[in-house]
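Objective 1b of the project was to move from sequence-level analysis to a structural picture of ligand recognition. The entry below was assembled by the postdoctoral researcher (A.K.) and checked by the PI before modelling. It contains the amino acid sequence of the target and the SMILES of the bound compound, adenosine-5'-triphosphate.
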Amino acid sequence: MSDDRIAELSGVTRTYGGVAVLEDVSFDVRPGVTAVIGPNGSGKSTLLGVLSGAVEPTDGHSRYVGPDASRPIGYLPQRVPFREEFTASETLAFYVRLAAVDATSPEDVADPEEALERVGLADAADRRVGALSGGMRRLLGIAQATVGDPPLVVLDEPASGLDPGTRERAFRTAADASGTDTAVVVSSHDLELVDEHADRVVLLDRGRVVAAGPLDRLCSERGVDDVSGLYRAIVAGDAAEDDGGDGRDGGEPTAVHVTGVSE
Ligand SMILES: Nc1ncnc2c1ncn2[C@@H]1O[C@H](COP(=O)(O)OP(=O)(O)OP(=O)(O)O)[C@@H](O)[C@H]1O
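Corresponding predicted holo structure:
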C-alpha cells in the first residue's frame, strides 16, 4: 500500500499540572476530511494543537510527513488573535505574505481576494476585523488557515457560533480544501455536518482515542447508521455512569475496541 500519510501522531501524551489530557494517542492523518469528535474536555483542541505544532506533547511525537510545501500546515485555533484595526482584506494579505516567504514560484503566492471569496466574505473585504460578526470572524479564520493551500489544514471548531447555513458553508469550504494529497482535520460537536463531510473520524473520550478510521467502516463494524449512532454506542453509553464532573474522575474509561488506528 502506498504511503499517502500527511501526518502521524505516535504515543502522544500531554499533561497539564500532572493531569493527562491526552494519553498515548496514535493515528495517521490521510488525505480527505478527518473529524475529531468527543465530549467537552475530551482533548480535541489539545490534539489539534499538537497536530499543528502549537502545543508541545509531553511524550510521543507529531510529525508532518506530507508533500513538500511552502506552507505545510494551516491552523485555525479556537480563538484567532486577529488585529482588530486591519480590514478583512489586509488581514489575509498579511497571511499571504507570511505564506509567500518560502514560496518557490509566483504561482504559489495566494491571492487575498480569492481567499475571501472562497469563504463568502468578498463583500466584507474592506470592513475592519473589529466590526465583523463572530461568524464572519470564524470564516476569516478559515480563509487564513487555507491561505497558500497547505497540504494539512487543521481547523478547531470551524462551525462554532455560526448559523446553520454558514455552518454548512464553513464545512463545505473545509471539505473543498481537502484532496488527493491534502488533509483537513476538523474538530466539531456538529455530528450532522461530520456525517455529511467527513471521510474519517477520530473519537476521543477522556484523552484517549476510542475509535479511529474511515467513517463507513466504523459504522458498519458497530452496526450503526451514522456518526451519531457511533457516538452514542461508544461514548454516550458511559455518560449515564459519569459522575458529572470533568470526565476524568469517573473511574476507568469505557472499555472499547480501538479500530483502524493503524491501517
Ligand atoms: N493550557 C491549559 N492549561 C491547563 N489545562 C488545560 C489547558 N488546555 C486544556 N486544558 C485542559 O485539558 C482538557 C481538555 O481540553 P480541550 O480544550 O483539549 O478539550 P476539548 O475536547 O477541545 O473541549 P471542548 O469540546 O469543550 O472544546 C480540559 O480539562 C482542559 O481544562
